Amino acid sequence: MDLNNCDPIMIQKALDSLIETHIETLAVKIVGIPEERYRSYGLNLAQFFQLPTVKKLTFATNVGFPHDFFDNVIKPSNIEYFTFADPEINFGDFSLLVRLMPNLKYLNIHLTSAQYSVRRWREVERNKPFPLMSMMKTYIVHVHDGTPIDFDRLVHHLKAMPALLQLEVTAPHGLFNAQNWEGLITSSLMKLVHLRLYATSHPQDPETIVQITDAFKTPFWVKKTNFVFMLMQLVQHKKAREQSETIERLGRASFNIYAYQFWTGAVRSDSALVRSHAPNGIRLLAIYIAEAHARNEWPVGKTISCIDQPTTLAERLNNAQQFKKNFNFEMSMLVDNMDNTFHITYGSWPFRFFVIYDGKLVLKADPDKETFTYDMNEIDNWIANFYQSRPQTI
């Protein structure tokens, strides 16, 4: 729903009509709500949580104070699966939110310690128990890099999920102290089967990285084959070579400790590139091909890759899907077939940038020979200049 282009009164009528339906799954995205005018719209957004048959709800908005969407909920919700896609929610409001959904089994949310400017924020007293989430089985939490919550605050609500089976935490590296996590798991999350810890930022100093990762090489972590700790911040390929000892030690770990070191140039600026040229009808595609540095094929590849060479198209598709998810990759993606037709035709290892116009290849840009990355500004300018100078055809 875009309130810039829709009548709020008609939107409210549409929301009211949902009460008469028997849907179980609902995904809602609301944009175009200026903060200074929000209250004048009079939308009853809290009713999403009160629809009697809805069990799965995904919600996103561009409003910076999401508390208004559930402040007026007057009775517990029947929702079992909830994703709060955007924006981040303050930890104090998070405690109120989960009180409204006592039947939660799945939760995906973004947390922040930032304080709202529009009203006095709620604070959680850590000496009081967090609302018990006895049915919670899967919890995915993203902690904001700029205003993260500390580990004690994270522990405060994880202890309220005694039946948790799957946990995924994406946060700055400061929240990933191996000893602290071991204590939490053995004392409060004893049923946990799958754990994914994604460090979105971490020091570039090799010794510091080794200190962080070595702490996960104790007997407790080594035997946890379903647990993964991953350093997610991409570094330039050139720097990875300069720190080869560190990257090698990551690769040798018995516990699943990974560091993504490749696709740096493509990942960092794909969003800006896509958005810059989409209005002109220029379509940018990423094509996922055979692994250039497969862990099980190339000895040097074991130091920079955590992926085996796919043997089936299903495996290659899964790798591509995980890549898009892990890096929020916005560019549309195709997957080469298992005959490697695209790779054989274009010679695209480790990766290349091609421009095809009117059925003809007009540019094959090679990456820098030392960093194996592209200057996205140069590519952006080349596309813009070519678009302006191309032959005008009807």
Q: Output the helix-strand order.
A: HEHEEHEEHEHEHHEHHEHEHEHEEH
The total strand number stands at 13
Strand order of the largest sheet: 1-2-3-4-5-6-7-8-9
Strand content of the residues, in percent?
15-25%
Task: Give me the Rg, rounded.
Answer: 24 Å
Largest sheet descriptor:
9 strands, parallel
CATH topology of the largest domain: Leucine-rich repeat, LRR (right-handed beta-alpha superhelix)
Number of DSSP helices? 13
Task: Catalogue the unreliable spans.
Answer: 36-41, 116-122, 233-269
Structural class determined from secondary elements: alpha/beta
User: Which CATH class of the largest domain applies here?
Assistant: Alpha Beta
Overall pLDDT score: 72
Q: What is the CATH-assigned architecture of the largest domain?
A: Alpha-Beta Horseshoe
| Terminus-to-terminus distance | 36 Å
Shape summary: globular
| Total discrete domains | 2
Helical content, roughly? 25-40%
